[in-house]
Give the backbone structure.
Amino acid sequence: MKKKWWKEAVGYQIYPRSFKDSNNDGIGDLNGIREKLPYLKKLGIDFIWLNPVYQSPNVDNGYDISDYQAIMADFGTMADFDLLLAEAHKLGIKLIMDLVVNHSSDQHEWFKESKASKDNPYRDYYIWKDGIQGEPPSDWQAIFGGSVWEYDEKTEQYYFHAFAKEQPDFNWENEQLKERLFSMIRWWLDKGIDGFRVDAISHIRKDAHHLPALLENVPGRYQNIPGIEHYLEELKQVFEEYDIMTVGEASGVKAVEAEQWAGDDGYFNMIFEFEHIGLWKQEQEKNFDIKAFKKALSNWQYALDGKGWNALYMENHDVPRSVSVFGNDSEEYREISAKALAMMYFFLQGTPFIYQGQELGMTNMPFESIEEINTLDSKQLYRELQDAGKSEETALATVNAITRDNSRTPMQWSNDQYAGFSNTEPWLRMNPNKQTINVEAALADSDSVFYFYQKLIRLRKQHSALVYGSFEEILPEHEQLYVYTRRNEEAVFLVLVNLSEQPASYQIPKHMKQLSEKAQLVLSNYQAAQDLPLTDTLAPFEARTYQIDMGN
Ligand code: GLC
Ligand code: CA
C-alpha cells in the first residue's frame, strides 16, 4: 500500500464558532483557535479541519458564503488566518479548509448579478427554470425542508436550492463558473493550506435538465446522479496540481462505489460516507442496530482495503454527540462508552477524525425551549411538527434528540461560568454539564477520555499495522461485539469492543487460536488481564486491543 502523510495522520475538526472566543464577544474565533494549538498538540493530532470561516451572512453558519476570499468578521481577519496557519505549521499541525462549492449565499455578488435579469452574464452561474402552470418546475423537496425551488418575482423564474433558500446551487454545467471556482481553489492552495474537506459534493449535479414533464417526487434527483463523474474528474485535476489531502462529504454514495470516489485513483483521497452514521435512531427510539452498524463499517473497510482509503468518524457538526447516541451518557457509563466508541473506530483502516469535545466525551444538550436552538433546519422541523398538530413538548423532544446544535454547544474548557470558552454569554447555550465535563478536569485525571484518545493516537503512530495493515472482521454474526484484526508483516492487532450495555461473551474462532496464544493486551477501558482468554465475557462497553508480534 502506498505510504502517504494523510494516511498516517489523525485529524481534528474545529467548529470555529464554538471552539474558543478570544475577544469576549461570545463567538469563537481564529485567534482563539491559535491560542489552543498547544492543547491540540498535546492530544497528538496532525491536522485540523476548519469548518467555514469565509464571509457569510450566517443563515447556515458559514455554509452560505458571500465572499470566498474574505474572512467572516466574527472570526477575525485574513491576517489572523495567516497567523493561525503559520503557527499551526510551526507546531507541525497541518490545516485543511472547508470547500463549499455546491452553492453560495444569495448575498454573493454572482447571485445578485444572476438575479438582476435573465440576460445577465451571471444568470447561468445558477440554475433557473420556468414554472409549470403557475407551479414550481417540480415537487422536489430540499434537504432542510420545503421546495427546492424559490420563485423570483422580478425575472419570473425559479432558482434551485438543495439546502436553504438563501443557499442557491451553482450550475456546474457552466464552464465559466467552474473556472472561477477553480481559480478560487488555487488561490487558497497557493496560500499554503494543506487541503480541503469538500462540502456536499455529491449534490453538484442535478437532474434538472432532464426534468420529467410535471410534478413527481422522486428522491435523490440531485444526489450522486450519473454525469457527476465529469465534474469530479475536473475538480480532481485541480487538486492534483498540489500536494494536499482531500476528503469529500459524500452523502448517497454506497460502498459499492467506494473505489470510484476514494480509491487510489478516486476523485478524493477519502470520503465521509453516511452509511454507518445514518444508523443513529431518530425520534427518541432507543434501539441501536449493532449488527447493521458493524456491517456498514465493514463493507467500507473491505471495499477499500488495498484499493483506497477511508475517512473514519463518529461525530461532526451535523450529528448529535456519539456518546449520547451510540454509547450511554449516564454517569456510570459515559466515560467507558466514550472510550469504547473511540477504540472501535480509531483502529479501523483509514484516517480518524476527532470532532471537538469528542475527546472529552461531551454529550448532547438538554435544550429547554426552541428559542435556545439556532440551526435553521431544526427550527423548520419544529414548525412542521407543530403544523402537524404535535404539542410543544413533543416537538421539542423530537428536535432535541436530533438537532445538530447538540454538537455545536461551546467547547468546555473549564468549570468557569462560561466554561473558559468566553467571559460573556456565548452565542449558543452552554451545556450545564461543563461542571464535570471539561478540559481542565480531563487533563487532571490520568484515566480520562482525553488520555485514552492520546493513547490511541500514540499506538497508531507506533505500529504500522494499525495504519496500513489489512482489515478482517471476526465474529461478524455477533450481536453485541465488534471484533476485527489489523495485520501486516510486523504485527497483528485484535480489537474487541462490546457496543452494548449488556455483558457479551465470545469464543476465539479456531483459525485464530494459535495467534491468540501470543497475544498481549495493549489497551483497555477496564482492568483486563494481559493474556487473551480463548473464551471470555466483556463487561458493558468493554473494549480491548491485543497485539501479536509477528517478528521472528
Ligand atoms: C454540509 C455541511 C452542513 C451544511 C450543508 C450545506 O452537509 O456539513 O453543515 O449545512 O452541507 O452547506
Ligand atoms: Ca470572538
The pocket of alpha-D-glucopyranose (ligand 1) is lined by residues 60, 63, 100, 163, 199-200, 249, 317-318 (CB under 6 Å). The radius of gyration is 24 Å. The chain has three domains: 9-102+175-454, 109-160, 466-549.
